[in-house]
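Weekly structure sync, notes
Attendees: PL (lead), two postdocs, one rotation student
Agenda item 3: pending single-chain targets
PL asked that the sequence for the first pending target be pasted directly into the notes so everyone works from the same version. It is reproduced below exactly as submitted, 160 residues in total.
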Amino acid sequence: MVTTKDGPRPYWVHLMWTYYLFMNITMFWWWEFRLSTLDWSLPIYLVVIIYATLFFFASLVVQPTNLDGISSYKEYYYANRRWIFGLIIAFTLWDVVDTTIKGVDHLLGLGTEYLAIIIGVCSACAVAIITPNERYHQIFAVVWIIYNTVFQLRTFFVID
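Predicted structure, written out during the meeting:
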């Protein structure tokens, strides 16, 4: 996105999802430090690798390396929304697996808000996959990203 001045025109909704992905990757690695207290096994290792791979794929879709044929990120975003939100659903659901390996107490400690977040974001992403409605995508991006940022800062600011 920042490699050429004559590249595709930025689109603020696309930038919001770029920020969301960056924030999630940052929080993922922050919380993987919690795994240092576990006895590592191949299944735990695979959970972490699969999660990181889902983030890698999402990064490739949200910020493509080949900009040929892309005149605007708005056009790109709507043309690729199925992949973008499909991958967000995938890593959101995989987060339940990752959270569970940190311990049932940790999972239960997140309370019903965590479950509501998983259901809510997956449902909203499913709608985003289906609809190209620009107003929906704008409202979803703003509301979800503000809420998610506040939730992450409130919940995960310190590793205990």
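Discussion points:
- The two ends are 37 Å apart (CA to CA).
- Residues 134-156 form the longest helix (23 residues).
Action: rotation student to compare against the earlier draft before next sync.
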